[in-house]
TrEMBL record:
Protein's name according to its UniProt entry: RNA polymerase sigma-B factor
Domain (RNA polymerase sigma-70 region) ranges: 54-121, 131-200, 217-265
Organism of derivation: Pseudonocardia parietis
Keywords: DNA-binding, Sigma factor, Transcription, Transcription regulation
Pfam families named in the record: Sigma70_r2, Sigma70_r3, Sigma70_r4
Stretches for region Disordered: 1-28
UniProt KW DNA repair keyword: no
Amino acid sequence: MRTVPPRSPAERTQTARRDGPGGYNDLEPDLRQLARMASDDPDRGSLRDRLICEFLPLVRNISRRYRTAAHSAEDLEQAAILGLIKALDRYDPDAATGGPLGYLVPSVRGAVLRYLRDHSWALRVPRDLKELGVSINRATVVLSQRLGRAPRPSELAEELDADTSEVVEALGALESYRAVSLDVPGPDGELTLGERLGDDDPGLESATMRDELRSRIDALPLRDRRILLLRFFGDWTQSDIAAEIGVSQMHVSRLLSQIIARLREELGD
């Protein structure tokens, strides 16, 4: 069984002061050994855990650079650590250049940036629009300096070699990056956004029914339509209606019941 050799006093001293681009070069042999080990090697887990602990100060330093008010330091550090673990598992000594940091730093930084990309938007936005939005922000800075004004969508599209429609869509998506509170007052003490929003209109639910009812009433016989309109729209009493059309109040009551029952049946169908 192959065992991982303990670190020498000199190596432990170097571990305590990992400054500069070559501060982690002493770990390169361990990285190479980890890359050669089979996944079921019983010594691989302990070496892997030790390397993770060795690189934790680097990971924390990178994650702190991207700390924002919208994201906790713990979440960013966790994303960076996951990036480190994946980078260690994929480490290829033949492809890595610039020492351990030349490979691990971009990997950890990329993991943090992906986390920010996926968790910084107030609304769910497709990934391609998020990535185009990042490119638009960068191109806007460059073009603004070059043109002396804010660039047009067509100019952004030309700079990014993209369709103008895609740029316009991404610009619209960028408005979802931050949610606006409904309680924030407008400029100059205007009403808040919540106060300017309309309320639910209960009449909308019955709009279709009213149109249908109107057509059914129009199809009624003239006398039935007149009785219905006088009673419910003119607010006449049954006695007044009876005197108007020359029938008894009881007859008006029966007619109203028949008319309403007919309308209900037709509307129900």
